[in-house]
Protein backbone atom coordinates (compact mmCIF):
# COMPACT_ATOMS: atom_id res chain seq x y z
CA UNK A 1 0.00 0.00 0.00
CA UNK A 2 1.23 3.51 -0.77
CA UNK A 3 1.86 6.24 1.79
CA UNK A 4 -1.22 8.22 0.63
CA UNK A 5 -4.10 6.52 2.47
CA UNK A 6 -7.86 7.03 2.53
CA UNK A 7 -7.67 9.48 5.45
CA UNK A 8 -4.09 10.75 5.62
CA UNK A 9 -0.45 10.28 4.62
CA UNK A 10 1.20 7.59 6.74
CA UNK A 11 3.93 4.97 6.72
CA UNK A 12 7.31 3.91 8.13
CA UNK A 13 9.53 6.98 7.89
CA UNK A 14 12.60 6.61 5.66
CA UNK A 15 11.10 3.46 4.20
CA UNK A 16 7.65 4.30 2.86
CA UNK A 17 8.34 8.03 2.60
CA UNK A 18 11.07 10.50 3.55
CA UNK A 19 11.98 14.19 3.83
CA UNK A 20 11.70 14.63 0.06
CA UNK A 21 8.06 13.49 0.21
CA UNK A 22 7.44 15.90 3.09
CA UNK A 23 9.01 18.74 1.09
CA UNK A 24 6.88 18.04 -1.99
CA UNK A 25 3.70 17.72 0.09
CA UNK A 26 4.49 21.16 1.51
CA UNK A 27 5.33 22.65 -1.88
CA UNK A 28 2.19 21.44 -3.65
CA UNK A 29 -0.25 21.84 -0.75
CA UNK A 30 -0.96 25.54 -1.53
CA UNK A 31 -1.71 24.50 -5.12
CA UNK A 32 -4.31 22.03 -3.82
CA UNK A 33 -5.62 24.40 -1.14
CA UNK A 34 -5.00 28.03 -2.16
CA UNK A 35 -4.01 29.83 1.03
CA UNK A 36 -1.91 32.65 2.48
CA UNK A 37 -0.61 30.52 5.35
CA UNK A 38 -0.66 26.91 6.51
CA UNK A 39 -1.10 26.00 10.18
CA UNK A 40 1.35 23.23 11.12
CA UNK A 41 1.55 21.21 14.33
CA UNK A 42 3.49 18.08 15.18
CA UNK A 43 3.61 15.20 17.63
CA UNK A 44 6.55 14.04 19.74
CA UNK A 45 7.79 11.26 17.43
CA UNK A 46 11.54 11.27 16.93
CA UNK A 47 11.17 11.96 13.19
CA UNK A 48 8.58 14.74 13.49
CA UNK A 49 11.13 17.56 13.68
CA UNK A 50 12.74 16.54 10.38
CA UNK A 51 9.37 16.20 8.67
CA UNK A 52 8.42 19.62 10.05
CA UNK A 53 11.64 21.15 8.66
CA UNK A 54 11.15 19.83 5.14
CA UNK A 55 7.37 20.27 5.03
CA UNK A 56 7.81 23.92 6.02
CA UNK A 57 10.64 24.41 3.51
CA UNK A 58 8.28 23.18 0.79
CA UNK A 59 5.46 25.47 1.92
CA UNK A 60 7.84 28.45 2.09
CA UNK A 61 9.33 27.66 -1.33
CA UNK A 62 5.78 27.87 -2.71
CA UNK A 63 5.65 31.47 -1.40
CA UNK A 64 3.35 30.69 1.55
CA UNK A 65 3.89 31.29 5.27
CA UNK A 66 3.77 28.58 7.95
CA UNK A 67 1.95 29.37 11.16
CA UNK A 68 3.74 27.03 13.56
CA UNK A 69 1.78 25.99 16.66
CA UNK A 70 4.56 23.64 17.81
CA UNK A 71 3.91 20.39 19.65
CA UNK A 72 0.21 19.63 19.37
CA UNK A 73 -2.52 17.07 19.69
CA UNK A 74 -4.27 16.44 16.38
CA UNK A 75 -7.53 17.98 17.70
CA UNK A 76 -5.48 21.05 18.68
CA UNK A 77 -4.61 21.47 14.98
CA UNK A 78 -8.29 21.21 14.07
CA UNK A 79 -9.05 23.89 16.66
CA UNK A 80 -6.22 26.06 15.34
CA UNK A 81 -7.48 25.72 11.77
CA UNK A 82 -10.77 27.36 12.77
CA UNK A 83 -9.41 29.68 15.48
CA UNK A 84 -6.68 31.08 13.20
CA UNK A 85 -9.02 31.16 10.18
CA UNK A 86 -6.65 29.00 8.12
CA UNK A 87 -7.52 27.56 4.71
CA UNK A 88 -5.00 24.73 5.15
CA UNK A 89 -3.42 22.87 8.06
CA UNK A 90 -1.16 19.88 8.62
CA UNK A 91 -0.62 17.77 11.71
CA UNK A 92 2.56 15.71 11.58
CA UNK A 93 1.67 12.43 13.28
CA UNK A 94 1.20 8.71 12.81
CA UNK A 95 -1.53 8.72 15.46
CA UNK A 96 -1.61 5.32 17.20
CA UNK A 97 1.00 3.53 15.05
CA UNK A 98 4.35 2.28 16.47
CA UNK A 99 7.29 4.66 16.89
CA UNK A 100 8.91 3.98 13.49
CA UNK A 101 5.83 5.35 11.70
CA UNK A 102 5.00 8.96 10.92
CA UNK A 103 2.69 10.87 8.63
CA UNK A 104 0.55 13.94 7.98
CA UNK A 105 -3.14 14.74 8.45
CA UNK A 106 -4.34 17.57 6.22
CA UNK A 107 -7.39 19.80 6.70
CA UNK A 108 -8.90 22.69 4.76
CA UNK A 109 -11.08 25.67 5.78
CA UNK A 110 -13.20 25.01 8.91
CA UNK A 111 -11.11 21.90 9.71
CA UNK A 112 -12.76 19.89 6.94
CA UNK A 113 -10.55 16.83 6.31
CA UNK A 114 -8.68 16.21 3.08
CA UNK A 115 -9.08 12.50 2.34
CA UNK A 116 -8.50 10.27 -0.64
CA UNK A 117 -11.67 11.38 -2.41
CA UNK A 118 -11.46 15.04 -1.36
CA UNK A 119 -8.00 16.05 -2.53
CA UNK A 120 -5.41 13.61 -1.22
CA UNK A 121 -5.27 11.64 -4.49
CA UNK A 122 -4.81 14.93 -6.36
CA UNK A 123 -1.97 15.88 -4.02
CA UNK A 124 -0.37 12.47 -4.53
CA UNK A 125 -0.50 12.98 -8.29
CA UNK A 126 1.17 16.41 -7.95
CA UNK A 127 3.88 15.00 -5.68
CA UNK A 128 4.62 12.17 -8.11
CA UNK A 129 4.32 13.99 -11.43
CA UNK A 130 4.82 17.76 -11.18
CA UNK A 131 8.12 19.61 -11.23
CA UNK A 132 9.13 21.66 -8.19
CA UNK A 133 9.92 25.27 -9.13
CA UNK A 134 10.51 27.41 -6.01
CA UNK A 135 9.24 30.99 -6.22
CA UNK A 136 11.42 34.06 -5.68
CA UNK A 137 9.36 35.51 -2.83
CA UNK A 138 9.53 32.74 -0.27
CA UNK A 139 7.28 32.45 2.75
CA UNK A 140 8.45 32.36 6.36
CA UNK A 141 7.73 30.45 9.57
CA UNK A 142 5.72 32.41 12.16
CA UNK A 143 5.22 30.95 15.65
CA UNK A 144 1.68 31.01 17.05
CA UNK A 145 0.89 30.07 20.67
CA UNK A 146 -2.68 28.79 20.98
CA UNK A 147 -2.20 26.53 24.01
CA UNK A 148 -4.22 28.67 26.41
CA UNK A 149 -7.00 29.35 23.90
CA UNK A 150 -7.50 25.63 23.31
CA UNK A 151 -7.27 24.88 27.05
CA UNK A 152 -10.04 27.44 27.70
CA UNK A 153 -12.21 25.81 25.04
CA UNK A 154 -11.78 22.36 26.60
CA UNK A 155 -12.48 23.64 30.13
CA UNK A 156 -16.02 24.58 29.04
CA UNK A 157 -16.80 20.85 29.05
CA UNK A 158 -14.96 19.92 32.26
CA UNK A 159 -17.24 18.26 34.83
CA UNK A 160 -17.12 18.84 38.56
CA UNK A 161 -14.13 16.65 39.42
CA UNK A 162 -14.35 17.17 43.20
CA UNK A 163 -16.07 13.83 43.87
CA UNK A 164 -14.37 11.86 41.08
CA UNK A 165 -11.26 9.70 41.20
CA UNK A 166 -9.82 8.75 37.81
CA UNK A 167 -6.70 7.14 36.41
CA UNK A 168 -5.24 8.59 33.22
CA UNK A 169 -2.81 6.82 30.87
CA UNK A 170 -1.42 9.45 28.51
CA UNK A 171 0.54 6.83 26.53
CA UNK A 172 3.64 9.10 26.52
CA UNK A 173 1.79 10.99 23.78
CA UNK A 174 0.31 14.36 23.06
CA UNK A 175 -2.51 14.30 25.62
CA UNK A 176 0.26 15.13 28.11
CA UNK A 177 0.03 18.71 26.84
CA UNK A 178 -3.33 19.13 28.61
CA UNK A 179 -4.46 16.35 30.94
CA UNK A 180 -2.83 17.63 34.13
CA UNK A 181 -4.11 21.15 33.53
CA UNK A 182 -7.60 19.75 33.10
CA UNK A 183 -7.81 16.99 35.72
CA UNK A 184 -5.30 18.17 38.31
CA UNK A 185 -5.26 16.18 41.53
CA UNK A 186 -8.49 14.34 40.72
CA UNK A 187 -6.45 11.95 38.60
CA UNK A 188 -3.55 9.61 39.05
CA UNK A 189 -1.31 9.47 35.96
CA UNK A 190 0.79 6.88 34.17
CA UNK A 191 2.97 7.29 31.07
CA UNK A 192 2.65 11.02 31.72
CA UNK A 193 5.77 12.30 29.96
CA UNK A 194 6.16 13.20 26.30
CA UNK A 195 8.41 10.53 24.79
CA UNK A 196 8.45 9.63 21.10
CA UNK A 197 9.86 6.18 21.84
CA UNK A 198 6.63 5.33 23.72
CA UNK A 199 8.38 3.39 26.51
CA UNK A 200 5.19 2.51 28.42
CA UNK A 201 3.45 0.73 25.57
CA UNK A 202 2.55 1.30 21.93
CA UNK A 203 0.23 4.32 21.70
CA UNK A 204 -2.72 2.27 20.46
CA UNK A 205 -5.27 1.72 23.25
CA UNK A 206 -7.60 -0.21 20.96
CA UNK A 207 -5.24 -3.15 21.53
CA UNK A 208 -6.22 -4.43 24.98
CA UNK A 209 -2.60 -5.54 25.53
CA UNK A 210 -1.67 -1.83 25.68
CA UNK A 211 -4.34 -1.24 28.34
CA UNK A 212 -3.05 -3.75 30.88
CA UNK A 213 -1.20 -1.10 32.93
CA UNK A 214 -4.23 1.14 33.30
CA UNK A 215 -6.58 -1.77 33.95
CA UNK A 216 -4.43 -2.76 36.92
CA UNK A 217 -3.95 0.87 38.01
CA UNK A 218 -7.70 1.55 38.06
CA UNK A 219 -8.24 -1.38 40.42
CA UNK A 220 -5.23 -0.47 42.57
CA UNK A 221 -6.27 3.20 42.79
CA UNK A 222 -9.95 2.45 43.38
CA UNK A 223 -10.82 4.80 40.53
CA UNK A 224 -14.30 5.52 39.20
CA UNK A 225 -12.96 5.32 35.66
CA UNK A 226 -9.77 4.88 33.65
CA UNK A 227 -9.01 7.01 30.58
CA UNK A 228 -6.35 6.09 28.02
CA UNK A 229 -5.47 8.22 24.99
CA UNK A 230 -3.71 7.28 21.79
CA UNK A 231 -0.51 8.91 20.53
CA UNK A 232 -2.00 12.08 19.04
CA UNK A 233 -5.03 12.27 21.38
CA UNK A 234 -7.70 12.10 18.70
CA UNK A 235 -8.87 8.75 20.16
CA UNK A 236 -9.65 7.59 23.68
CA UNK A 237 -10.65 4.35 25.39
CA UNK A 238 -12.16 3.78 28.82
CA UNK A 239 -11.78 1.31 31.66
CA UNK A 240 -14.63 0.85 34.14
CA UNK A 241 -14.25 0.79 37.92
CA UNK A 242 -13.77 -3.00 37.84
CA UNK A 243 -10.79 -2.72 35.49
CA UNK A 244 -12.76 -3.83 32.42
CA UNK A 245 -11.99 -2.44 28.97
CA UNK A 246 -15.14 -0.85 27.52
CA UNK A 247 -15.70 -1.61 23.85
CA UNK A 248 -15.53 1.86 22.21
CA UNK A 249 -18.85 1.73 20.36
CA UNK A 250 -20.58 1.27 23.72
CA UNK A 251 -18.99 4.57 24.75
CA UNK A 252 -20.99 6.23 21.96
CA UNK A 253 -24.07 5.27 23.97
CA UNK A 254 -22.50 6.71 27.16
CA UNK A 255 -21.87 10.02 25.36
CA UNK A 256 -25.46 9.84 24.13
CA UNK A 257 -26.60 9.83 27.75
CA UNK A 258 -24.91 13.24 28.15
CA UNK A 259 -26.06 14.87 24.90
CA UNK A 260 -29.54 13.43 24.39
CA UNK A 261 -30.59 14.51 27.87
CA UNK A 262 -29.97 18.08 26.67
CA UNK A 263 -31.57 17.85 23.23
CA UNK A 264 -33.02 15.19 20.99
CA UNK A 265 -31.03 14.96 17.78
CA UNK A 266 -29.40 12.63 15.29
CA UNK A 267 -26.29 10.53 15.87
CA UNK A 268 -23.70 9.10 13.48
CA UNK A 269 -22.15 5.64 13.98
CA UNK A 270 -19.94 3.50 11.77
CA UNK A 271 -20.88 0.31 9.96
CA UNK A 272 -19.36 -1.90 12.70
CA UNK A 273 -21.42 -0.47 15.56
CA UNK A 274 -23.25 -2.78 17.97
CA UNK A 275 -27.03 -3.02 18.04
CA UNK A 276 -26.61 -2.59 21.81
CA UNK A 277 -25.47 0.98 21.11
CA UNK A 278 -28.02 1.89 18.46
CA UNK A 279 -30.94 0.47 20.44
CA UNK A 280 -29.82 2.30 23.59
CA UNK A 281 -29.50 5.57 21.65
CA UNK A 282 -33.06 5.05 20.38
CA UNK A 283 -34.26 4.62 23.98
CA UNK A 284 -32.52 7.89 24.88
CA UNK A 285 -34.46 9.67 22.16
CA UNK A 286 -32.07 9.90 19.21
CA UNK A 287 -34.21 11.18 16.33
CA UNK A 288 -32.16 9.43 13.66
CA UNK A 289 -29.15 7.10 13.75
CA UNK A 290 -27.08 7.24 10.60
CA UNK A 291 -24.71 4.33 9.87
CA UNK A 292 -21.76 5.25 7.66
CA UNK A 293 -18.25 4.42 6.52
CA UNK A 294 -15.30 3.99 8.89
CA UNK A 295 -12.75 6.81 9.13
CA UNK A 296 -12.54 10.44 10.17
CA UNK A 297 -12.47 11.81 6.61
CA UNK A 298 -15.84 10.13 5.91
CA UNK A 299 -17.43 10.70 9.32
CA UNK A 300 -16.75 14.44 9.45
CA UNK A 301 -18.41 15.01 6.09
CA UNK A 302 -21.46 12.89 6.94
CA UNK A 303 -21.96 14.44 10.40
CA UNK A 304 -22.06 17.88 8.71
CA UNK A 305 -24.42 16.70 5.99
CA UNK A 306 -26.87 15.13 8.43
CA UNK A 307 -26.51 17.84 11.13
CA UNK A 308 -25.74 15.23 13.80
CA UNK A 309 -25.21 16.27 17.41
CA UNK A 310 -22.31 13.82 17.72
CA UNK A 311 -20.95 10.57 16.36
CA UNK A 312 -18.80 7.64 17.39
CA UNK A 313 -16.73 4.83 15.91
CA UNK A 314 -15.61 1.40 17.07
CA UNK A 315 -11.99 2.62 16.81
CA UNK A 316 -12.54 5.18 19.60
CA UNK A 317 -13.02 8.30 17.48
CA UNK A 318 -15.86 10.54 18.70
CA UNK A 319 -17.09 13.55 16.71
CA UNK A 320 -18.90 16.60 18.03
CA UNK A 321 -20.99 19.38 16.54
CA UNK A 322 -19.59 21.44 19.44
CA UNK A 323 -16.09 20.93 18.00
CA UNK A 324 -16.54 21.77 14.30
CA UNK A 325 -17.76 18.18 13.69
CA UNK A 326 -14.22 16.96 14.47
CA UNK A 327 -12.94 14.19 16.71
CA UNK A 328 -11.19 14.76 20.02
CA UNK A 329 -10.10 12.18 22.56
CA UNK A 330 -9.87 14.71 25.38
CA UNK A 331 -13.28 16.24 24.68
CA UNK A 332 -14.82 12.76 24.54
CA UNK A 333 -13.27 11.95 27.92
CA UNK A 334 -14.65 15.15 29.47
CA UNK A 335 -18.17 14.24 28.31
CA UNK A 336 -17.90 10.63 29.51
CA UNK A 337 -16.70 11.95 32.88
CA UNK A 338 -19.75 14.25 32.97
CA UNK A 339 -21.85 11.07 32.86
CA UNK A 340 -19.65 9.25 35.38
CA UNK A 341 -19.99 12.20 37.80
CA UNK A 342 -23.79 12.18 37.40
CA UNK A 343 -23.93 8.41 37.88
CA UNK A 344 -21.90 8.71 41.08
CA UNK A 345 -24.39 11.22 42.47
CA UNK A 346 -27.10 8.63 41.77
CA UNK A 347 -25.12 5.85 43.48
CA UNK A 348 -24.33 4.07 40.20
CA UNK A 349 -21.11 3.22 38.40
CA UNK A 350 -19.89 3.36 34.82
CA UNK A 351 -19.67 -0.42 34.75
CA UNK A 352 -23.31 -0.74 35.77
CA UNK A 353 -24.34 1.63 32.96
CA UNK A 354 -22.35 -0.38 30.41
CA UNK A 355 -24.03 -3.58 31.64
CA UNK A 356 -27.40 -1.90 30.97
CA UNK A 357 -26.31 -0.89 27.45
CA UNK A 358 -24.96 -4.27 26.34
CA UNK A 359 -27.78 -6.51 25.09
CA UNK A 360 -25.90 -8.65 22.53
CA UNK A 361 -22.83 -10.88 22.36
CA UNK A 362 -20.23 -9.09 20.25
CA UNK A 363 -17.01 -10.41 18.71
CA UNK A 364 -15.17 -7.10 18.60
CA UNK A 365 -13.16 -6.48 15.46
CA UNK A 366 -11.24 -9.53 14.23
CA UNK A 367 -8.40 -9.04 11.73
CA UNK A 368 -7.31 -11.45 9.00
CA UNK A 369 -4.11 -10.81 7.05
CA UNK A 370 -5.05 -11.83 3.51
CA UNK A 371 -3.81 -11.33 -0.02
CA UNK A 372 -7.16 -12.28 -1.57
CA UNK A 373 -9.34 -9.86 0.39
CA UNK A 374 -11.74 -9.08 -2.45
CA UNK A 375 -12.32 -12.75 -3.19
CA UNK A 376 -13.05 -13.45 0.49
CA UNK A 377 -15.54 -10.57 0.66
CA UNK A 378 -17.25 -11.78 -2.51
CA UNK A 379 -17.54 -15.31 -1.11
CA UNK A 380 -19.11 -14.04 2.12
CA UNK A 381 -21.54 -11.85 0.21
CA UNK A 382 -22.52 -14.64 -2.15
CA UNK A 383 -23.39 -17.00 0.70
CA UNK A 384 -25.14 -14.67 3.12
CA UNK A 385 -27.00 -12.44 0.66
CA UNK A 386 -28.81 -15.58 -0.51
CA UNK A 387 -30.11 -16.39 3.01
CA UNK A 388 -32.91 -13.77 3.09
CA UNK A 389 -31.17 -11.14 5.24
CA UNK A 390 -33.31 -8.37 6.75
CA UNK A 391 -30.88 -5.72 5.52
CA UNK A 392 -27.70 -5.35 3.45
CA UNK A 393 -25.47 -2.26 3.67
CA UNK A 394 -23.12 -2.17 0.72
CA UNK A 395 -20.67 0.62 1.53
CA UNK A 396 -17.26 0.19 3.15
CA UNK A 397 -17.53 -3.54 2.55
CA UNK A 398 -20.81 -5.08 3.66
CA UNK A 399 -22.98 -5.27 6.74
CA UNK A 400 -25.49 -8.11 6.40
CA UNK A 401 -28.22 -8.33 9.03
CA UNK A 402 -30.53 -11.11 10.16
CA UNK A 403 -33.19 -11.09 12.92
CA UNK A 404 -30.90 -12.44 15.68
CA UNK A 405 -27.43 -11.70 14.33
CA UNK A 406 -25.38 -9.64 11.86
CA UNK A 407 -21.83 -9.28 10.61
CA UNK A 408 -19.76 -6.68 8.81
CA UNK A 409 -16.75 -7.32 6.59
CA UNK A 410 -14.47 -4.63 5.23
CA UNK A 411 -10.94 -4.02 4.05
CA UNK A 412 -8.79 -1.79 6.24
CA UNK A 413 -8.07 1.57 4.62
CA UNK A 414 -4.74 1.88 6.39
CA UNK A 415 -3.41 -1.66 6.92
CA UNK A 416 -3.29 -4.95 4.91
CA UNK A 417 -6.17 -6.58 6.77
CA UNK A 418 -9.66 -7.91 6.23
CA UNK A 419 -11.76 -6.98 9.24
CA UNK A 420 -14.82 -8.82 10.59
CA UNK A 421 -17.29 -7.88 13.32
CA UNK A 422 -20.14 -10.22 14.25
CA UNK A 423 -22.89 -10.00 16.86
CA UNK A 424 -25.68 -12.28 18.02
CA UNK A 425 -28.29 -12.52 20.79
CA UNK A 426 -26.52 -15.47 22.45
CA UNK A 427 -22.92 -16.59 22.80
CA UNK A 428 -23.76 -19.99 21.33
CA UNK A 429 -25.11 -18.41 18.15
CA UNK A 430 -22.19 -15.97 17.94
CA UNK A 431 -19.68 -18.83 18.21
CA UNK A 432 -21.53 -20.78 15.53
CA UNK A 433 -21.72 -17.83 13.13
CA UNK A 434 -18.07 -16.89 13.67
CA UNK A 435 -16.96 -20.44 12.92
CA UNK A 436 -18.84 -20.30 9.60
CA UNK A 437 -17.39 -16.89 8.69
CA UNK A 438 -13.85 -17.96 9.57
CA UNK A 439 -14.18 -21.14 7.52
CA UNK A 440 -15.07 -19.15 4.41
CA UNK A 441 -12.28 -16.60 4.98
CA UNK A 442 -9.83 -19.43 5.67
CA UNK A 443 -10.16 -20.61 2.08
CA UNK A 444 -8.37 -17.44 0.96
CA UNK A 445 -5.55 -17.26 3.49
What's the short story on this structure?
Helix content is 35%, strand content 22%.
Mean pLDDT: 97
Give the overall shape.
Answer: globular
Radius of gyration: 22 Å
Number of E strands: 23
Helix content: 25-40%
Low-confidence stretches: none
Protein described:
The structure is a single chain. This protein is of the alpha/beta class and 445 residues long. It contains 14 helices and 23 strands. Strands 1, 2, 3, 4, 5, 6 and 7 form a seven-stranded mixed β-sheet that branches. Strands 18, 19, 20, 21, 22 and 23 form a six-stranded antiparallel β-sheet that branches. A five-stranded mixed β-sheet has the order 9-8-10-11-12, with helices on both faces. Helix 1 crosses helix 2, helix 8 packs parallel to helix 9 and helix 8 crosses helix 11.
List the helices and strands and how they pair.
Elements: E1 9-12, H1 19-32, E2 37-42, H2 48-61, E3 65-71, H3 74-83, E4 88-92, E5 101-108, E6 112-113, H4 120-129, E7 141-143, H5 147-155, E8 166-169, H6 179-183, E9 187-190, H7 212-221, E10 225-229, E11 236-239, E12 245-246, H8 248-259, E13 267-270, H9 275-284, E14 289-292, H10 296-305, E15 310-312, E16 318-320, E17 326-327, H11 329-345, H12 350-357, E18 361-362, E19 366-369, H13 373-384, E20 391-393, E21 398-401, E22 405-411, E23 417-424, H14 427-442
Helix pairs in contact: 1-2, 1-4, 8-9, 8-11
Amino acid sequence: MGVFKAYDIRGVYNKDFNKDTAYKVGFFLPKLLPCKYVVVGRDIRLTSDEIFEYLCKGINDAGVDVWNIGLATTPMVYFATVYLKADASVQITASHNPKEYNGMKISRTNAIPVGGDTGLKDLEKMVNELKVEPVANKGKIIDKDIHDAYLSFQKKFLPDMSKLSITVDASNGMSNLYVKELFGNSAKYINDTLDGTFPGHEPNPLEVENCKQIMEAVKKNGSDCGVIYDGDADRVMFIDERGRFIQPDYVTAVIGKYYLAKEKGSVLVDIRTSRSTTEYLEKLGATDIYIWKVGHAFAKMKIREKHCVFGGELAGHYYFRDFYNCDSGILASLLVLQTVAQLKKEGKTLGQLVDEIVAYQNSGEINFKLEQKDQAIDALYKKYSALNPTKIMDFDGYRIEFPTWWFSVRKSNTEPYLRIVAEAKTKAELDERLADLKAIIGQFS
